[in-house]
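To the wet lab folks,

You asked to see what we're planning to order before we commit. Fair enough. Below is the target structure as tokens, and below that is the sequence we designed to fit it. If anything looks off to you, flag it before the synthesis order goes out.
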């Protein structure tokens, strides 16, 4: 699975496409719990070495039917590589301790890798024709690692180490040549694949830029070791005679430096508790009902009775016991007289009650005095009816 530059660029765009929208959801609090499972993707680049060598075994004439003698030799592969795009997926699980130490385990799989090619020159080893090319390469790798880190606000700083595995291939393109007797020796190809396993370690940093999302960078160094491969017999150039063949074998190794940009989605990661809602302001108390004192009068009279004087005393006492307010002193009549006469009678009754209040200490300017005649009957009646409940003065304290 060879990754190209276009493939890695596409992964980078996909991994970063969530940033603008998610950045609008930044957590308000700074305390982040990194505990829980997560999964994500990564893009980056790697460089390192893919050293190896091709061994051509010496043979004598006739060792292989029809073959000539082969001196044998070794072609070394000097395999420093340029930066190569890489990308893949990762997933893991974190445990955050009360002291902000974070322990975790992570696995990843990445495509892309290292590749180096060596060409045999004019001083090629015996039996290996000049122009022969040999390639050591790797197309994928994976790792399983532990992580130890420290959480600080929305940041996680960590170190990581474990074991890594990678594929490795060794390919040989043996160039054709002309044997000493003038016979053309055809070229040949041989290749073998193997799997290398070795230690990997490094470190990185993550930043929680949105709920359940983090972005980070990581560096790792991996030494996958080396392995030996056998190609069988390959045609080559003998010392004399016709076509020569000789057993070929090789070794391939892999050492890798990788820098990755990573984006992770954290499942069920606990988020900071929202601040408590402010307590609702208590509802204002309902306004107090106005107090009403009613002074009743005899028919066609405006003279205050003893019972009425007691009511006026209660109204005056109520006024003096609270904050000063304007008293409404309103006179009424029944419907036994004419409306004009009743209006004048109600006003006389109201004025008499107001004077009585003034005598008891209620200032005159703290009263609004008026008469309503036969309007607003307390007990609705027909015209001409003498209703005692309607012959009254109401003292209202708002």
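Sequence we intend to order:
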């Amino acid at each position: 699975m060879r990754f190209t530059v276009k493939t890695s660029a596409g992964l980078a765009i996909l991994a970063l496409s969530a940033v603008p929208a998610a950045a609008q959801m930044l957590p308000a609090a700074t305390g982040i719990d990194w505990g829980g499972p997560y999964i994500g993707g990564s893009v980056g680049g790697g460089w390192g070495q893919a050293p190896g060598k091709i061994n051509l075994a010496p043979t004598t004439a006739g060792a292989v039917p029809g073959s000539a003698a082969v001196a044998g030799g070794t072609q070394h592969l000097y395999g420093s590589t340029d930066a190569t795009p890489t990308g893949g997926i990762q997933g893991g699980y974190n445990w955050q301790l009360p002291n902000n130490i974070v322990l975790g385990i992570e696995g990843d799989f990445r495509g892309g890798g290292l590749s180096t090619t060596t060409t045999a020159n004019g001083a090629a080893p015996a039996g290996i024709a000049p122009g022969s090319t040999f390639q050591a390469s790797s197309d994928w790798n994976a790792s399983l690692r532990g992580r130890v880190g420290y959480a600080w606000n929305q940041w996680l700083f960590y170190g990581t180490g474990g074991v890594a595995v990678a594929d490795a291939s060794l390919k040989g393109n043996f160039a054709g040549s002309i044997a000493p007797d003038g016979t053309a020796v055809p070229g040949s190809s041989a290749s073998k694949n193997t799997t290398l396993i070795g230690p990997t370690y490094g470190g990185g940093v993550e930043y929680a830029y949105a709920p359940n999302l983090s972005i980070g960078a990581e560096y790792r160094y991996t030494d996958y070791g080396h392995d030996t491969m056998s190609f069988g017999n390959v045609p080559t150039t003998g010392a004399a005679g016709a076509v020569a063949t000789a057993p070929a074998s090789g070794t391939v190794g892999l050492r890798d430096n990788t820098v990755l940009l990573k984006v992770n989605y954290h499942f069920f990661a606990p988020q900071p508790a929202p601040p408590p809602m402010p307590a609702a302001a208590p509802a204002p108390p309902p306004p107090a009902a106005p107090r009403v004192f009613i002074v009743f009068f005899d028919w066609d009279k405006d003279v205050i009775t003893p019972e009425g004087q007691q009511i006026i005393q209660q109204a005056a006492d109520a006024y003096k016991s609270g904050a000063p307010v304007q008293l409404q002193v309103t006179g009424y009549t029944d419907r036994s007289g004419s409306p004009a006469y009743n209006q004048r009678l109600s006003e006389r009754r109201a004025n008499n009650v107001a004077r009585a209040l003034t005598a008891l200490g209620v200032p005159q300017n703290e009263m609004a005095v008026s008469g309503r005649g036969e309007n607003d009957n307390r007990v609705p009646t027909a015209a001409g009816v003498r209703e005692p409940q309607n012959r009254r003065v109401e003292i209202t304290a708002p």
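Structural context that might help your review: DSSP finds four helices and 18 strands in the chain. Residues 301 and 346 are 10 Å apart (CA to CA).

Thanks,
Computational group
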